[in-house]
Specification:
It contains five helices and no strands. The chain is an all-alpha fold. It has one domain. α2 crosses α4 and α4 runs antiparallel to α5.
């Protein structure tokens, strides 16, 4: 026979039983973005104003290409999770479902478009 106290059942779980996991995922992605975005902006800033060949050469190198891909994927995942929380707070019923589908679809389209462009540049 298994005996679980109320505290044991509640440990690590929010009201919907995923709040802690969501909070940690958002915190980890925010910290990752805090380091990646300034580095990416530095690389991107140096590429702006160059000729087309210089820009293509910059993003054809491994580090800028990998960093750009990571920024795209992590930022769109962070956007989708954060926006889903916002939609859940303010929408109900069918609007909630449509909003969540829209947010995840928008994030996926932006990430896919950016990755496609990056692959075209890098290869």
């Amino acid at each position: 026979m298994r005996y679980l106290t109320d505290r044991k059942r509640a440990t690590g779980k929010g009201a919907s039983h995923t709040g802690t996991e969501h909070h940690w995922a958002m915190t980890v992605s925010a910290v990752a973005l805090a380091f990646m975005v300034p580095t990416w902006l530095y690389i991107f800033g140096h590429a702006i104003g160059g000729t087309r060949a210089e820009v293509l050469a910059t993003f054809a190198r491994p580090f800028p290409a990998i960093l750009t891909a990571l920024v795209l994927v992590v930022s769109m995942r962070h956007f989708a999770k954060g926006s889903t929380t916002m939609v859940q707070d303010y929408a109900h019923g069918t609007a909630l479902k449509a909003g969540i589908v829209f947010v995840y679809s928008l994030a996926a389209v932006i990430a896919a478009t950016g990755l496609y462009a990056l692959i075209r540049i890098a290869l």
